[in-house]
TrEMBL record:
<feature type="DNA-binding region" description="H-T-H motif">
    <location>
        <begin position="27"/>
        <end position="46"/>
    </location>
</feature>
<protein>
    <recommendedName>
        <fullName>HTH tetR-type domain-containing protein</fullName>
    </recommendedName>
</protein>
<keyword id="KW-0238">DNA-binding</keyword>
<dbReference type="InterPro" id="IPR036271">
    <property type="entry name" value="Tet_transcr_reg_TetR-rel_C_sf"/>
</dbReference>
<dbReference type="GO" id="GO:0003700">
    <property type="term" value="F:DNA-binding transcription factor activity"/>
</dbReference>
<feature type="domain" description="HTH tetR-type">
    <location>
        <begin position="4"/>
        <end position="64"/>
    </location>
</feature>
<dbReference type="Pfam" id="PF08360">
    <property type="entry name" value="TetR_C_5"/>
</dbReference>
<dbReference type="GO" id="GO:0000976">
    <property type="term" value="F:transcription cis-regulatory region binding"/>
</dbReference>
<keyword id="KW-0804">Transcription</keyword>
<dbReference type="Pfam" id="PF00440">
    <property type="entry name" value="TetR_N"/>
</dbReference>
<dbReference type="InterPro" id="IPR050109">
    <property type="entry name" value="HTH-type_TetR-like_transc_reg"/>
</dbReference>
<dbReference type="InterPro" id="IPR001647">
    <property type="entry name" value="HTH_TetR"/>
</dbReference>
<dbReference type="InterPro" id="IPR013571">
    <property type="entry name" value="Tscrpt_reg_QacR_C"/>
</dbReference>
<dbReference type="GO" id="GO:0045892">
    <property type="term" value="P:negative regulation of DNA-templated transcription"/>
</dbReference>
<dbReference type="InterPro" id="IPR009057">
    <property type="entry name" value="Homeodomain-like_sf"/>
</dbReference>
<keyword id="KW-0805">Transcription regulation</keyword>
Amino acid sequence: MEIVDKRQAILEAAAKRFSTSGFHETKVGEIAQDAGIAKGTVYLHFKDKETLLAEVVHYQMREYYRVVVEAVKPYESAAEKLRAYARFQVERFPQMVKFHKLNFEHMIKFKDNKSFEQQRIKQLHDVMHLLTDVIKYGIERGEFREMEDTTDAALVISGAIHSYMQAVMTGMIEAKDQAGAEALVDMAIRGLAR
């Protein structure tokens, strides 16, 4: 196993352990065992468990961004790209719940670490830029009306999906299938369309 593969194996094993057991309950030895390496190897790649948590969150955010870009890329129309984004969110909902829990632990643990916070904010901006770029693309194609700030429209779409996820997590509503997620986007698009 190459060094890069070991690092990735550690990140993936740690993500699973942190997401299911929580940061404090997870032992580095368990992560090493899950990754198929010796415990000391974890410390060759990561200074300590706190640094590993931060790297896991950033790794997952990079992976999330990479996969969501792949999910929307094949579609020609901006509306279909937004629907693909919604389908992706619903499909990944169980993993997203675990990720949000992990991200929350990360925010608390590193609230005073400016470097980690700046990296997290940059990654959140990347996802928002993906949505604003799709909306700008839709304006250029004449699918959506002109608007001064596409960020507001991106926030409406993102907010609708996140509110939906929160409502499911709290039991306010039943989980939607992919068609239900697309319906949320269609409501937002009707507000954007000419």
